[in-house]
Design goal:
Helix content: 25-40%
CATH class: Alpha Beta
CATH topology: Rossmann fold
Strand order of the largest sheet: 3-2-1-4-5-6
Radius of gyration: 18 Å
Number of strands: 6
Structural class: alpha/beta
Largest sheet: 6 strands, parallel
Number of helices: 7
Order of helices and strands: EHEHEHHEHEEHH
Number of domains: 1
Distance between the termini: 60 Å
Length: 215
């Protein structure tokens, strides 16, 4: 099977994540796309109010009715600690030998890819598909230039391009909006959020900054 892995905090999941999954399924001829929520990213600190269980609930809500073969891979949440891609791929290789893996990333992650933890091993186990981020110039690091292909053959170690989502959505910006959001009257949802995610957030807003009780 050809399986895509889309990792991230998904805090919260938004339309950009879902559109990227659609593009990966169509452009890479995948049998399945798995969302892989991180426990703790090695590239940036978790949000101060991060609650992995809440992130997972919102991700499940986001995928309700998704038109394609998607799943949530909880391996990193179960393992805990810093979520290194090399560790995840090693675990998947042991659990599911014979599968073909490709990482789905945004172009903002591409420049740092050669410096990922055990980057060489990552590219022995999986290929990489890159989607341009809106407003960003996507340049391939010189160390990876020889790996660029027009299409993914299914072999590890290749780098291919996906179309951009054309959606300038960012979880960090959404968190700021949600932290200040009204409650219990939810108001209008941010346009970047799917309705089912907005419904889950308004039912239990994990981002809401509750006012301090007077002394």
């Amino acid at each position: 099977m050809r399986i895509g892995l889309l990792g991230g905090a998904f805090n919260p999941p938004h339309r950009g994540h879902l559109r990227l999954a659609e593009l990966a399924l169509a452009g890479l001829d995948l049998d399945q796309l798995r969302f892989v929520p991180t426990a703790r990213s090695p590239h940036k600190a978790n949000a101060p109010d991060d609650v992995p269980e809440a992130r997972l609930r919102l991700l499940k809500a986001a995928l309700e009715g998704f038109p394609g073969p998607v799943a949530i891979e909880t391996l990193e949440l179960e393992r805990g600690g810093t979520s290194y891609t090399s560790d995840t791929l090693e675990a998947l290789r042991r659990r599911e030998p014979g599968q073909q893996w490709i990482l789905v990333i945004g172009s903002d992650q591409l420049p740092g890819l050669p410096r990922w933890h055990q980057a060489g091993r990552v590219l022995e186990l999986a290929s990489v598909a890159v989607a341009p981020r809106p407003g960003m110039v996507a340049a391939v690091p010189s160390e990876l230039a020889g790996r660029v292909r027009d299409t993914w053959s299914g072999a590890p170690g290749e780098l291919v391009w996906l179309p951009g989502t054309a959606l300038d959505a960012a979880s960090s910006r959404l968190r700021e909006v949600l932290r200040a959001g009204p409650r219990p009257d939810p108001g209008e949802p941010p346009p970047e959020l799917p309705p089912q995610v907005w419904a889950a957030i308004t039912a239990e807003n994990p981002y809401r900054e509750e006012p301090m009780e007077p002394a």
